[in-house]
């Protein structure tokens, strides 16, 4: 998920300290075109091995490079149910960071919230998306430890956004057909201008 309003990011060498266990030679992966983001089947992870840890390290590096707050594996062309999130910024240094393997929403509130949302796969395009105000998500970390998060606010939104990616759903799919068409038109136009410039 894209950082709304492009706030400054907490500066940190992700290969150091907290993520020291992860692979050091991680790389920034190109983000897929949105036409490639609706794969038929995104598999559950069944091995918590070095390959998974390398994927997670690459995903974190790619997310930080793109200045996002969340990234799902299908966005870099990997059909596995893995997502990473980092909500920390200058205003909220303890906002938290998560690696979720095989996450699923086990509870979501009937109460909904509307807020602007963007996606690293459709850069600089934002629109207001209605989502559950609170969710409970269960999954595993990269070591295979079970985790459960009860989230509200931005974390609840970001988790729903990333888990949608694992089901082949983009935030634009949650807009009205009219708004989706308008946003895609604007995005295509910006892509063309970008290609010319
Ligand atoms: Zn996204």
Describe the structure.
This protein is an alpha+beta fold and 197 residues long. It is built from three helices and seven strands; from the N terminus they run H-E-E-E-E-E-E-E-H-H. It has helices spanning 50-65, 153-166, 177-196, and strands spanning 70-72, 82-86, 97-108, 112-119, 122-132, 134-140, 146-152. It has a five-stranded antiparallel beta sheet, with helices on both faces. The protein starts with 49 loop residues before the first helix and ends with a helix. 32% of the residues are buried. Residues 6-24 have low confidence and may be disordered. The site of zinc ion has 6 residues, from helix 2.
- Mean pLDDT, all residues: 85
Distance between the termini: 26 Å
Q: Trace the largest sheet across and list its strands.
A: 1-2-3-6-7
| Rounded radius of gyration (Å) | 16 Å
Q: Describe the main β-sheet briefly.
A: 5 strands, antiparallel
Bound molecules: zinc ion
Strand content: 25-35%
* H-E string: HEEEEEEEHH
Class of secondary structure makeup: alpha+beta
State the low-pLDDT regions, or none: 6-24
Number of helices: 3
In total, how many beta strands? Answer: 7
> What coarse outline follows from CA principal-axis ratios?
globular
Secondary structure: helix percent: 25-40%
């Amino acid at each position: 998920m894209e950082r709304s309003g492009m706030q400054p990011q907490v500066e940190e060498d992700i290969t150091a300290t907290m993520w020291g266990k992860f692979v050091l030679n991680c790389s920034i992966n190109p983000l897929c075109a949105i036409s490639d983001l609706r794969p038929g089947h995104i598999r559950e992870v069944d091995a918590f091995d070095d390959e998974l840890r390398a994927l997670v390290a690459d995903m974190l590096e790619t997310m930080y490079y793109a200045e996002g707050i969340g990234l799902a594996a299908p966005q870099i062309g990997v059909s596995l149910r893995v997502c990473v999130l980092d909500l920390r910024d200058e205003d909220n240094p303890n906002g938290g960071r998560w690696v979720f393997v095989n996450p699923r929403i086990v509870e979501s509130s009937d109460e909904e919230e509307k807020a602007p949302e963007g996606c690293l796969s459709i850069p600089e395009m934002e629109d207001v998306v209605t989502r559950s105000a609170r969710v409970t998500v269960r999954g595993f970390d990269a070591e295979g430890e079970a985790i459960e998060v009860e989230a509200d606010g931005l974390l609840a939104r970001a988790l729903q956004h990333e888990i949608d990616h694992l089901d082949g759903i983009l935030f634009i799919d949650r807009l009205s057909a009219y708004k989706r068409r308008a946003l895609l038109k604007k995005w295509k136009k910006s892509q063309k201008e970008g290609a010319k410039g």
